[in-house]
């Protein structure tokens, strides 16, 4: 059976301009590399190189062995990574729940860095609405959550938190809806128009109608994407994350609702949250450190 070094010697000899450079790439002497190649050919009973010219050239059989050697070395590297992963006690899976109003862009580099460091761990990002993100952590279904909501929603559940960033929701409507109200100044005038709301994916607002005035027509949807689509079509009005509205506001498809009795902007602070009682593993700990390492 060929050794790992013999396969490494084969690949280096093919990929480097000379045997000297191939040996240097493997931190070996050139005689050691040459010996490994000859041993490999002897064990396989095949000439892998044509040695008639100045440079070694793969034979037809050598080309096929080289391609298989590449795959074998890749599998060997994966095996070593998996062994290190298991030896360190790294989690197989870490779940980060994110309240959907949060813009992921500022944390992508941190997520990429942690995933590269712990390549054998599956980092799962789950999007939730309103109280859903923090509730998943409280129930033990997620390791971390990013939420704009106060974490003390479930009695008896202690949570660690750290500030992450700030954001805001904007109250918007389409020009075609606003054209029906040329002198609009109060939310009371919009009672017959549908206020589009996103359904809470948790249970923290069960039985409540947050931000809905008395006798207001309203629709519940399951995503901000659906909410945005309905509002752009003039079928209702409502709040959406500012980062989702940049292009629509600039293009004039939506307008900010400036009303005397209903704020056009709702500002809040996002926090990174985890259960105090649970002992986080290495990957969850590194995510906690990287995501909360500084203001985004």
TrEMBL record:
<keyword id="KW-0804">Transcription</keyword>
<dbReference type="InterPro" id="IPR000847">
    <property type="entry name" value="LysR_HTH_N"/>
</dbReference>
<feature type="domain" description="HTH lysR-type">
    <location>
        <begin position="6"/>
        <end position="59"/>
    </location>
</feature>
<comment type="similarity">
    <text>Belongs to the LysR transcriptional regulatory family.</text>
</comment>
<dbReference type="GO" id="GO:0000976">
    <property type="term" value="F:transcription cis-regulatory region binding"/>
</dbReference>
<dbReference type="Pfam" id="PF03466">
    <property type="entry name" value="LysR_substrate"/>
</dbReference>
<dbReference type="InterPro" id="IPR036390">
    <property type="entry name" value="WH_DNA-bd_sf"/>
</dbReference>
<dbReference type="InterPro" id="IPR036388">
    <property type="entry name" value="WH-like_DNA-bd_sf"/>
</dbReference>
<dbReference type="GO" id="GO:0003700">
    <property type="term" value="F:DNA-binding transcription factor activity"/>
</dbReference>
<keyword id="KW-0805">Transcription regulation</keyword>
<dbReference type="Pfam" id="PF00126">
    <property type="entry name" value="HTH_1"/>
</dbReference>
<protein>
    <submittedName>
        <fullName>Transcriptional regulator, LysR family</fullName>
    </submittedName>
</protein>
<keyword id="KW-0238">DNA-binding</keyword>
<dbReference type="InterPro" id="IPR005119">
    <property type="entry name" value="LysR_subst-bd"/>
</dbReference>
